[in-house]
Amino acid sequence: MKKTLFLFVALVLCLQLRAQVGLHVGFFGGGQYSMILNDQPIKTSEKGFKYVATFGQTYGFKLGYNFVPPIGLHIGAIYSVQGQDYRSQDSLGVESTTSRRSTYIKVPILLHLSSTPGPVMFTMEIGPQFGILRDASYTVNGTAISLTSPTTLLWKPNDFAFAWSLGAEFGITKGFHLYVQHRGDYGLFDFENKRVSENNVLFFSPERKRAHNLTAGIVAGLSFVITGGHSKVTRHYKGHTWRNNWR
User: Fold this and answer.
1) At 229, which helix (H) or strand (E)?
2) Which of 3, 41, 59, 154 could form a disulfide bond with 88, CB atoms 3.0-4.6 angstroms apart?
3) DSSP 140-164
4) What is the pLDDT of residues 162-180, one digit of tens each?
């Protein structure tokens, strides 16, 4: 009876293991908190900078390959709406709310790590991410500012970031998983275009500090696992060895 039970458990573990090795195709979406890390108003005449909580959305597609159960390489294409709102006061003490929004297409290349394969697995991903600016807006009290050039020129066309995710993955079947993750990224370089000018005057003050993008969100997704190639697992129990091979 004990041997039968053990063989059954070993078989389940092996099938779960097989489900992790191979091609992973996934989709996800959710909300995110975003910030622009620079606590200075755009206009040098403004005072009393105050961050306002700013939220956006993120949706994505990912494609990855797990070489062995706990390790893989995953890439993706992510649509991200982000930015920052802040309050400030002019020289007369009148308060206003400035809103900056940007839309990026992000391409992360992430090292994927997971816990021991099973019905519930913990996952972590880290790596570089390349961002492509698609759209941008800049409003004050809900009214778009007037510029002689496109708003997108206030931002650099690309942003390079460090990206990460932490979460749990649930094996519904051998080839179909659901997962919940915290995903985020931090821009490594100043994304504002400090060279842009309006009427031959620099838009940003030469003394302005660097500005970095930051996002942190919760997403839910689904993943399809397409196994392939040759996998071998060895299990040891009380002096006995089992080897399982699949093709």
Assistant:
1) none
2) 41
3) ETTEEPP-SS-GGGGB-SEEEEEEE
4) 999 999 999 888 789 999 9
Compute the CA torsion angle 39, 45, 47, 50 (nearest 10 deg): -40
Task: Please report how many Cα atoms fall inside a 13 Å half-sphere around the Cα of residue 177, on the Cβ side.
Answer: 29
Closest CA to 110 of 74, 80, 136: 74
Q: What are the tokens at 14? A: 């092996």
Tell me the two tokens of residue 187. Answer: 């821009």
**H or E stretch covering 7:** helix 2-20
Please name the amino acid found at residue 100: R
User: What average pLDDT does range 26-37 have in this prediction?
Assistant: 97
pTM, 2 dp = 0.81
Average pLDDT over residues 26-33: 97
Length of the chain: 247
